[in-house]
Amino acid sequence: MKKKPLKILVLFEVNETPSALEEYERLMKEEEAWFTEGHVVATLRENGHQIQLGPIHKHPRELIELVEQVEPDLVWNFVESFRGHRYFESNIVGILELLGVPYTGCGHRALMLCQDKALSKEILKHHKVHVPRFVVSRLGQPLRRIAASLLPALVKPLAEEGSVGISRDSFAETDAQALRRIEFLHEHFQQDVIVEQYIEGRELYVGVLGDQRLTVLPPRELRFAKVPDSEPKYASFKAKWDEEYRERWGIYNTFADDLGEPVRNEVCAVAKRAFRVLQMRGYGRIDIRLTAEDKVFVVEANPNPEIAMYEDFAEAARKAGISYNDLIEQITRMGSRVTVP
Fold first, then answer.
1. Cβ contact 75:96 at 8 Å
2. At 145, is the secondary structure helix, strand, or coil?
3. DSSP 254-320
4. Which tens digits make up the pLDDT trace of 50-70?
5. For residue 127, what pLDDT is reported?
6. Rounded CA separation 332/314 (Å)
7. Which of 147, 248, 300, 320 is deepest in the core (most CB within 10 A)?
8. Which CATH number belongs to the domain containing residue 176 in this structure?
9. Whether residue 340 has pLDDT greater than 70
10. Judgement on whether residues 152 and 219 belong to the same structural domain of the protein
11. What is the C-alpha separation between 118 and 112, in angstroms, rounded?
């Protein structure tokens, strides 16, 4: 039996007083920065759902009024920050939970846990998941030295995503280099900084789909074809998002098809464990470093990752036999089944 179409409020944040909804319809078709929302909205409509766009700007009342006005069966949640701060991402979901409205993706606890790279690593470590050794430099009490056993290290903002704040200068081989980068990040991001041991190895991205039962998608890999063997290889902001930089250094995303079955099974098992212990649901991505000795380290967990039609998550779903329309429908139906207290 064909499932009943849903009335869906597509929720997203904007940095100015919301425009007419027709303007967001245009942006989703024409502007690359809006393609993810555009792909999902178009697919939801193809799947027969009734869509209402819902921009929010600076006050929780905007969200409450949208929900009261639209009375949606489901909120498709695209909100990654509020009032310009990622810190409030989980609060928006908390409001939806208080309103008793089902929504897509991860709950407020998962969003909060994963936002804090140190806290999530502590939880993973407690559950016997390998993570890089790390230390946190607090904004109000910055570190004065870095233990030699932690070097070389990557120095990152504690609560950013999408490799924001990660550059070539993030790689520190000495105490002095690490402290300089810590000072820079404290000043520019006004937040705590994590210093984590650099794990030499392959950079894998493992998508996980599901709630009670989980599907691990075929692993994707960030490869560095033109980067010398002597240089560190990691996902800086430019390595992820700067096409000219990626082309110059031969950086590209592909499938990690050469993993042997035992390694692939271990990668999948670790991804599932990380997804569960961090209380993720719906869809997420686990970022992994795989050493030459096939040891699996979880570097980061990403709730509600990029889900545009040609990004890693959707590509991996297609390889697993899940079309983009089916992927969006699965996430939609999973969200609609969530019981809100």
1. yes
2. coil
3. EE-TT--HHHHHHHHHHHHHHHHHTT--EEEEEEEEE-TT--EEEEEEEES----TTSHHHHHHHHT
4. 999 999 998 999 999 999 999
5. 97
6. 15
7. 300
8. 3.30.1490.20
9. no
10. no
11. 12
